[in-house]
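Holo model, zinc ion. Inputs:
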Amino acid sequence: MKNCPSCNSSKMRKYEFHQQEVDQCQACHGIWLELGELDGALSVADNGNSQVYMEETLGEILGESKCHCHVCDKKLSRYHLMSGFEVEVDTCSSCYGVWLDHEELEKVSQSPAIAKALLELDKPVHKRTWLFQFLSQMPVEYNLKPKRTPWVTYALLVFNVLIFMSYGLGGSSEDFAFNNFALHSDQVSHGQQLWTLLTHMYMHGGLMHLVGNMYFLYIIGDNLEDTLGRGKFILYYTLCGLGAAVAQILADPNSMIPMVGASGAIAGLFGMYLLWFRHASLTFMIIVYQKKVSPVIFFGFWILTNILGLYLANESGGGVAYWAHIGGFIAGIAIGLLVKKKVFAANPLLAILNSHEVKVKR
Ligand SMILES: [Zn+2]
Ligand SMILES: [Zn+2]
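Output:
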């Protein structure tokens, strides 16, 4: 190896990249891989699960590179590493050597995992997804399966259902439950029944209220729990529920209408999800037309309907706690922004999936 293809420095040294001995520039820290070395390295980076054939499947050619192949004495060509993952790599069309800039090494190392993830994320809508949404009016989620079983999400589901069954199936316990455990703004704003700040989020006003909330908790809670870990997940869930309650109390401190439901806490999960899972999709249905959309669009539309509902409810009354939804959502966005850096540092694959180089088919 002669000079660096990128910066022309003469200080090229041997370097081990995923068990392949390659040449690294000591000035710009990019690396040069000969034919076969990229596939060899990526097969190792992918835990040796299967042989990777990235060199044969490079994406679109983008034009001439500023880098120069010092083996063949000609310009390199710029390519996307693969379709759907638009990291630029430079390749020689004669000797098939590959140049990787230093900033690309981590992204390139993750590319077999990205390729596998895209197989899941790019799945198209299907007759089954259409029928499900048409009948249930609920979205279908496209995201990666969590690596760990989401026990906290499951526990929340079971707990909410059990609480509902304890009073919601008729009988005299319903009044007792609502009087003592639902959130009454007029009580809490006067320092009474403060425990209802917590208890209201495990109660629901009816079966459809429960089912709707639990479905959303089920589809997005698992990914958030996997990303955050169990302790932080339940902590942030609770904080968002409290944010929702506070917003509702501030909006109408003397209200005597009882408020119940996990909606505020779950609205907070929406906020975190749209910030950290840009690569995920949810299906949106307009009458009979089903389309995959990004979480930003899906939950952005959801929050707009809540703001609109707020104006309409001012004229007609109405039973939805719009302020709680908005408050929970804002709490989720705030937490999501505050801890985003830490979350991405702890989940490198998630960080790369959220980068602009990843293009999901919708
Ligand atoms: Zn260099
Ligand atoms: Zn060459």
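The chain has 14 helices and ten strands. Residues 108 and 327 are 40 Å apart (CA to CA).
Archived with the compound record.
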